[in-house]
Each structure stands twice: as C-alpha cells, then as structure tokens.
Amino acid sequence: MHEELRAALAGLLDGLPPKQAAQAVERLIANYRGTTPTDAPVLRDRADVAAYAAYRMPATFEAVRSALTAFAARVPDWSPGTHVDIGGGTGAATWAAAATWQGHRSTVLDWAQPALDLGRELAAGTLPDTDWQRAVIGAGLSVPPGTDLVTVSYVLGELRPEARRAVVEAAAAARAVVLIEPGTPEGYLRIREARDQLIAAGLRIVAPCPHSDTCPITVGEDWCHFSARVSRSSLHRQVKGGSLPYEDEKFSYVAATAFDAPAAPARIVRKPQLRKGQVLLDLCTAEEGLRRTTVTKRHGADYRAARDAAWGDAWA
Asked: Residues 6 or more apart from 313 whose CB is under 8 A from it?
C-alpha cells in the first residue's frame, strides 16, 4: 500500500507554481507546530491540499499504520467491516487501514471539501470502497450506528477543547477507536485526555497501554510516544527540503475497544539499549507501571528476542 500511495502522490505538484507550493508548506508547518486551535479548516484550497498531501501524507500514513498494526496484534481474529476516518482530509489513515485489513468500507469525514476532493482523486482505483463526506468536525458530529472502527489522526490538536471532547465522544460510539497525535508533549497530553474520556465511556484500552488504569507517566517529566520510519521519495525530499532518504515520524496514540480484547503484558516505551551481553528495556507494565529490565545472555531465548525488539513492541 505504501508504493500505491507513493505512486498516487508522484505527480501531485505538477502545474502548481513552486512559490505557491512553498508558501503553502510553510504555513502548514507553522500550523502543525503551533498550539493555537481553530474553528476553521486548515486546508483552504487546492494549493494547500496538494502541499499538505506531499508534505504530510507519507508520515501520517506510516504513523497510523504503526498504531493500527500494534492494535491489530491485540485483536488478531477481528477485522472491521466498516471504518470511519474523522477529520481524515486526504485519507492517509484510510490508506493505512487498507494496508492493515481488507474487505471493509471506509467513510472519510472532513470539513475541507478541497481535501476530500483530492483524497478521492488520489484513492481512485486503489480504495474503491471509500466514501468522502463533508462534515463539521466538532459539536454535533456522530458516526453511523454499528460502526466497527473509528480513526482520528492528527486532528485533535486543531480543535478547541469542547470540539475535541465532542469528537472523542462521537468516536467512542464505535466498537474500536484508534487516536493518533504528534509525538510531542502536547500531542501526548491530548491523547492522555482522550484516553481518560474513552475509559469513562466504558471502553477498554488495548494499545499501547498494558492496562486501563491511570497513566503512570508524571506530566511535565516525560511523555509517551513512538516512532515510525518514513521512506522519502524525491517529491517528499523536494517539498520538505531534506536530503536524507528517510525520516522518523514521532507519534502518540491510543487504541480502545468496546469488546473484550487483551492488552499487551508490557510495552517497550523507549528504544532498546544494546550493551555487551545485555539489552536494557524500558517498559510500561500492568502491575509495576514504568520500569527498566535488563535481559542478558543467560536468559537465552528472551535475550535473542530482546536484541530483535523495537521501540513500541509488546513484551511478555
């Protein structure tokens, strides 16, 4: 699915004046890194949408796919029949859902018609079972009864607090919910707040947390986030002004279900540290909260597993 998305993005900026594309990218970067919420669509016209798609879709796709993969590992016998992507814009999360499960129908809801139009254009022929609908992302939002999966990615930070709560409340009506935000302290706080709201609505947290209790992280001292490797195409490097063939997208997420699903026994919450004959793992656990464990060669199979383990993996 990554290659199909890359191909769909390939000629996106053809015909768009470079100066206009650059200005749109700069404005979007400022908005993405800013802290001021809005009551209006961030993507205003075709130039904005094209710049956004080239600048952000590859990274958003990889972050959402990583979160959905971690969630899917907790529910291996389950797959959604219906999927609603709230604030989905050009559809990066819908592409990620299609890369994770097959046979479902997706609906992308967004308040920016230019984003929906371009998303439909990019998905033509690849994501045929997708509807693109304009909707106000905030108070009054609802998802169809019986929806299996709702995704909300990189949206909550654009909203005022009351609108954020309304979106999470709407999402909580689904059988499964996956929320993704930037892997910044602010993004983590929005995920933490939404996590509490999902628990209060009766949902069970299944990833990344190994429990549905209070998050053990002390606010202001640390934040929970993960990383996804993003391969940069020539278009991606051009728009982002970078030279490396890859980048690492940091993200925070939470996945919850209305049905019985087991959380991981523990989750690796930092990049494993390899030492001579040992691996240091920082874990979030159900019983002990945050703790570090050292796995040595004498642990045999566990040591080999620890050497192969990655940041974000479940740990038994």
From this structure: 267, 268
Report the pLDDT value the prediction gives residue 29, as an integer from 0 to 100.
Answer: 63
- The set of residues, in sequence order, having a beta carbon less than 8 Å from that of 237 and lying 6+ positions away, is 243, 244, 245
Pairwise CA distance, residues 150 & 82, whole Å: 9
Tokens at 152, concatenated: 């909300």
Task: Name which of 194, 224, 212, 197 is nearest 290 in CA terms.
Answer: 224
Q: Spell out the domain ranges in the chain.
A: 2-257, 266-308
- Gap between the Cα atoms of 189 and 87, Å rounded: 19
- Local structure of 76: helix, strand or coil: coil
- Residue 177's pLDDT is 98
| Domain 2-257 classification at class level | alpha beta
In this structure, the number of other CB atoms found within 10 A of the CB of residue 274 comes to 11
The 10s digit of each residue's pLDDT in 93-107 is: 999 999 999 999 999
Q: What are phi and psi of 153, to 5 degrees?
A: -125, 125
* Residue-wise pLDDT tens digits, 194-249: 999 999 999 999 999 999 999 999 999 999 999 999 876 555 555 555 555 668 99
pLDDT-above-90 percentage for the chain: 74
Q: 236 and 255 in contact (C-beta within 8 Å)?
A: no
Beta strands in the chain, from DSSP E residues, in sequence order: 82-86, 105-110, 130-134, 149-153, 176-182, 204-207, 226-231, 246-257, 266-268, 273-275, 278-285, 289-296
